[in-house]
Amino acid sequence: MGGHLNINHLMFLGQGALWTIGLSVIALIGGGIVGFVIALARISPLKSVRIASAVYVQLIQGTPLLVILFLGYFGLAAIGLKVSPLAAAGASLTLYVAAYLGEIWRGCIQSVPKPQWEAAEGLALSRTQRMMKVILPQAIRIATPPTVGFVVQIIKNTSLASVVGFVELMRSGQIVNNSLFEPFAIYAIIAVTYFAMCYPLSLFSQRLERWMGRGRSNLAPA
Amino acid sequence: MSLQLDFPAVLERWPNFLAGAALTLELAAFATVFGALFGTLAAIGRGSRSSLIAGACKVYVEAIRNTPLLVQIFLVYFGLASLGLKFSAFIVAVAALTINVGAYTAEIMRAGFEAIPRGQIEAAEGLALSRLQIYWHIILLPAIERVYPALTSQFVLLMLASSVCSQISAEELTAVANYIQSDTYRAFETYIIVAVLYVILSLVMRAGFWGLGLVLFPRRRRLGTPL
């Protein structure tokens, strides 16, 4: 207790902020890869694959991230699999992000106008060719704004990794608070730091949406 | 160590789980009602002619939407304490969740307001409806009807997010799970059960909102809206 916020504390918080970004990148890449598979599985011609991926999405979207994190950290440890906080947080966030990104991207793929699918079929493109050369390039355009918007959710959600002891921004704030005991000031600094990371992305996502909205009119079916 | 799962050992604590689930629903219900009111006011405020009110509402919405709920809860918790105000964890949790969901509701409601065609408002003015009547019948109710699905999924997300309140020792479902797992050393089974309970709670909430939607919006019923 006692003492004042000094440069060392701020350095420590800065290091935490870097880990928040690092964990967000891990979650985005991991969740992006799994989420892409989920999105394709949700529109698969095989009914069993569609159902399995829908169940996955429903289960993850019906469970709080905090419980998934506890399951990954304490749960796996209790059945004999010891994982580090980073591994537990990275894996839990990957599973969580995949379910949400998968649903977002499925919507984007399905919102590519129907005539585009039919035209590709009419040109005798194979399923893979149709996906890779016709649908996905257009779907990526549609998907960019909501995906950037979702990155904001990812950054905010990494704060939950603090409860399994991963030292990101939130946890480093708690540690600094334990030595200074000025909770309000320190959590205010933490909040401002999160805001500084998230707000530019939110603005960027909104701006992309406006730009794309203009370009989208060319995509509308004739 | 071989994998041995013992669900009955954890399941015999079902009264605790049930109490936790009930408190989670209670938290969600309070925060939904207060947050919906608060958020609607903020959405109306954003369209205010006074740039001070509109600006304040925008700052509120952006500040909340760009910071984690966990930080907000700690700020409310320690903020009230530093003002010398002592409240139970439940009250603090409801307050923080209300502030949080209010910002998301405001953004959804604003989209609803913007989707109301200008011509309808002009038509209502032409029919000599009062300002209050126009607001209620032409703007607010149709806007809510339009964004009802987005609103309800936000409220389900809120119920799930209320798990974070375990961190300020509100005795909701996740806090109960933490307590039971430290008592029984059966973390895996405990969290699996809790995850299933949350899935059930979110399905129950969604079904409830769907039913409520049928009662509140007869027009939606005729359209045959999916669950």
Q: How would you spell out the order of helices and strands of chain A?
A: HHHHHHHH
How far the N terminus sits from the C terminus of chain B, by CA atoms, comes to 45 Å
How large, in whole angstroms, is the Cα Rg of chain A? 21 Å
Q: What name is given to the CATH topology of chain A? A: MetI-like fold
Give the domain tally of chain B.
1
Per DSSP, the total helix count of chain B is 10
Strand content of chain B: under 5%
H/E element order of chain B: HHHHHHHHHH
CATH class annotation of chain B:
Mainly Alpha
Number of strands of chain A: 0
CATH homologous superfamily label of chain A: MetI-like
Q: What kind of sheet is the major sheet of chain A? A: none
The biggest beta sheet of chain B reads: none
Structural class of chain A: mainly alpha
CATH domain topology of chain B:
MetI-like fold
CATH class of chain A: Mainly Alpha
Summarize model confidence as the mean pLDDT of chain A: 91
Oligomer: heterodimer
In the CATH classification, which architecture of chain A applies?
Answer: Orthogonal Bundle
Helix content of chain B: over 70%
